[in-house]
Design goal:
This protein has 782 residues and is mainly β. It has two domains: 197 residues, Jelly Rolls (Sandwich); 471 residues, Neuraminidase. Helices cover 9% and strands 43% of the residues. Strands 1, 3, 4, 6, 9 and 11 form a six-stranded antiparallel sheet that branches. It has a five-stranded antiparallel sheet with strand order 2-5-10-7-8, with no helix packed on it. α1 packs antiparallel against α2. The longest helix is centred in the first third of the chain and has 27 residues.
Length: 782
Amino acid sequence: MRLVWSSWASGQTRGAAPRLWSIGCALLLAGALAPAARAGFIGAYACSNFTLTNSAEADGSATCPDDATLVITGPNNGSGLDGTTDLTMPSPASGVLQFDYIYTSLDPDPGYDYAGYLLGADFFQEADTSGQSGTVILPVLVGQIIGFRVGTFDNLGEPGVLTITNFSGPSSPEPDGFELAAIGIGSFVASWIFRRRKRLLLRHGFVSIPVILAIAASGGALQAQQIYYSGSPVTGLVLVRTVNIQQQLLAASTAASASPVSETKPKMPPPRLRPPVIPTLLNTRTTGTAEVLTVVPASGLTAFNALSHTDQRLADNGNQWSIEPPNQSIAVSNGYVLEGVNDGVRIFNTSGSPSIATVASNQLFGLAPTIDRNTGINGVYLTDMRVYYDQGMDRWMVVQRSQDNDAAGNALNQSHLYIAVSQTADPTGTYYIYLMDTTNPNHPGCPCIDDYPQIGSDQYGFHIAWNEFSAPYLNFNDATILSISKASLASGASTPTAFQFFIAPTTGFEFAIQPAYTPPGASNFLASGGMEFFVSTFYQFGYGSQVALWAMYNTSSLATTSPNPGLTRITVNTLTYTNPDVATQRPGPLPYGSTLIPPGQLAYLDGGDIRVQALTYAGGRLYLTLQSGVVDQNGRGVVGGAYIVLSPTYRNGILAASVLNQGYLAVNSNHLLRPAIAVNAQGHGAIAATLVGPDWYPSAAVIPFDTFSTPSTIQVAAAGSLPEDGFTGYPGGSGAGVARWGDYNTAVVTSDGAIWMVVQYIGSYPRTQFANWNTLVIRKQP
């Protein structure tokens, strides 16, 4: 019999320990331990007989892919705190336990994860660096706890994985008294030596946390310089009123309806503002060849039609504008689905039945109608709808912004941010209404307007990032991040605690900074005083091969009267992405275009740009999608997308990240618009997108996604019935224009791990004169 002690300590002991270990071995041998052993994870040692125990900050798992192999994956929930995953059972007999192990990890920094075995109350560490392996043989007593542990010091940077093979354990009746005594003495000596050895190793520095290097896993190249930013507290966000949306609907039901023919010209939506792009000699329309997705029948999906252009236009007795494109957003929890599109909000149950009528945004925020069709007086024009459910607060939120205008609709050089927060977990009730002047007149380059607000949250803060443009010329000024105390918002504080960063455009990454969303069941980053991640792309040339990873630390200070979070940033090498060209449509009837003089021609669809579309933080990983030009397998440039999975770490003040998975999304000869990803705590998810092209009218589609797999299929949840035929596609009434398409789709996760999505498409449903878009809400259980 061969006895091998902890491989990491081999050759490191001194003094009495080796002699005592030899005595222990001799005692074991003298015991003549020869009971029959059970090989593999069968019978008494079947996987089902072990108990998996995760500590408070652990999300590890164990599986037996076959009877001869046990695989334990340790914690990596992204909290930044320590955790352990144990797999244990009482020994069914006394005798000798033996197994081989190999330890692996994708964490670029060894020493932050570890693995070993458990014997009684003692843990014996065997490995903390990927690739370590060995054999363990040890005596056990009947009823003694035996098992394995994989642990982490910070739940970041990818988990340790312990694989056990060649396992055998005692399964015969108990040995006689002499054997029991020998085993007991041997076990006592082994335990004593372990404790003695551990002290020696610690004393001589053999067990230590390595120096952290900010090294990117992609190619091992040094990451770009880490940059730090400072901000300041703000007091400009104030509670202005409370609004009960059902009372608003009741009041509207008794008011006079607007004239059905009063709209002679639709309101052109604000343009999608972008910073100036430096031209290059490169062809930036297409990038790498994609692994093309195969269109397969829908499976495991349920869906229902939600807000349409008609619903939004006719809300508030028709005192609304015709708006194109739709910017749809979704939040789901507590049996409710809250959808917001442009200037309309509607609440459904999860079966798709409306809980209330469509509410106009101006009704929700307690404002006069955006346009009074009987008088022609313009109210506040809200845009860039975002809705959100926060699991920590158990509250619903709606965020919009405005570039202000006068009563005639003329734009003013001032802007505001509007936030509605439900008072309870019921989204159909009363909301706190908050208002912030974002004109920022004393800031260099301003007065300014806020554009394209994007939202996310961590344990302590609700974060809104937007692009700031100077008025009236709409020159890009800087990127802004506003972080608000969630506790303040939930309590209806008159001036919620808030902190703001203004980030000047100096490197090309300071645009459309996307905050991360943490789904139910996943852990927020709790170390370093709480942390929120953000990601942005490189906008300066219209293409790039890096993303910026931003980390806001000490967000817990938002819960105090003196908030002082910090912000830092690095860049990470990724695949190449580029601004796409326009998307083509399948020809079909054009009821609106055909009425124009001269008749309008089939429009192209706006292909978007390279800003991040969605960002999820789950299991210590960041999942993001973006639009990009790609080359399909026919060598044709199409509008497609890209996905990137990052594994971020923040250790000793150093931010780092490696790319775990990345790739392109494309369908041969067709186009994918606005891919939005959501991933649950188990690493399973879906990407929502619009599929359109010569073979498809604009259709709602879903791409199944798993962390380490390459997406290969796309499912059509609802096929389009007609081409896009809205007013933005016919400039001047002639020629083939470029129709605006939604700036984003949305995907979120519910507590059961299901992915809920909302996608723009064109169905065969009642339309208005000026537009025919619809939205589809989709649920997929991965």
